[in-house]
Amino acid sequence: MYCLKLKYQLKKMDNYFLVYNYITSETVIAFKEKKAEYNTLKDVLYYGEKTLDSPRISECKIMEYLLSKEPELFNNYEEEKSRVLLNIVRDYTEFFLPYFISTEVLEEYLIFAEEVINEGRKFNINLLLGDMFPNVSDFVSKLPFVIISDVQGKEKANLLIATQEKIDELKGSTPDYILALGCKANKLEVGPLVNVTKFEIPHFRESLYEETKVMHHEELLVCFFLERILFIQLFNLYNKMRHNEFFPTRNKVCINRMDLQGYNEPVTLYPKYLTGQVV
Predict the structure, then answer these.
(1) Domain boundary at 119, 139, 168, which?
(2) For residues 220, 224, 226 and 230, what is the CA-based torsion angle, rounded to 10 degrees?
């Protein structure tokens, strides 16, 4: 299945369709087609003809024309795992485009993302959630760029997701990044995401733990935040985008369980060099 490479975007100006290169800021090819519908053509070029329930002749003919005219614009994704991964990477790439700090870091990200897609690569995640978030494990395991690995496994994971209580109980070696989840009587907490090679693991204190149950729809809300945080972290986007203070690196996202209003709450992190440990 052929799809446009990530660095190319479909645009429409007046009655013309344009295939635009993010990196060079140039239009690679332009054409006019009155019968084609923009969003449908976009889906065909971005995700392949198989995304259409009932393929439209105009859009498919344009795809065939572009393939014959400019085959270097496309990648061929033969494996299902690569096609599924392409969908989520393309969606997030489109969304994050305005936030990249330069074309250089955008190009660096696109090269890395293409490699992940072509290889069908998955990042290793450890989970220590106990019974508090029964549906989060299932959600994370279904993300096309994630594989859940054993905490005691030989291969070091890219990240650990754990409840605040489990984090306070941690002993021994851990992945370089830890993400905390918490549930209080009045709020849900996602984060902070901590680089434990540079910072001490924060203590959440056992006195704050509460016997409370997370409702199913609340877990779905937590999963929404988790997917975005994991994508940004695992695809190395934190230092490549501006306004990344809105994502929970040294903050935790709090969601009021009554009205579902969200806000950031800072968590104090202490660099390891202040405690005499080597960074």
Answers:
(1) 119
(2) 140
